[in-house]
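Could you help me review a protein record that somebody else here produced? Do not assume that whoever made the record got everything right. The record follows directly below this note.
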Amino acid sequence: MRDAENTPRAQFPGDRSGEADEPGYVIHLPVRVPDLAAATTLAGTVAISLSFLVELDAGETTVSTADDQNNRHRVFCDLLLPDRSRCPQRFEHEGPCGEPPSAPEPRPASR
């Protein structure tokens, strides 16, 4: 997986300020998990579950190691599509952009 480019968008989707040059704030919510696969899965789940918040830009969700937070990995594709929407699939997905993501695999039963 390649690192995420650190290029900011002009504004967040729910930005009500009307001023694109106001920086605003970004919330960093550290959650420690054992590996990159678990981190991207959990980050995607959290982003999707909070998608009702207009302030959330789920497509920009990234994960990093705790000791190298400048080296981030994208969770979602987020490619800009011809209709000006964004691809909702996971980063480096197979198949064409724009199709709804496939259902996640069921979790194994706990012991």
About this structure: The chain has a mean pLDDT of 80. The longest helix spans residues 36-49.
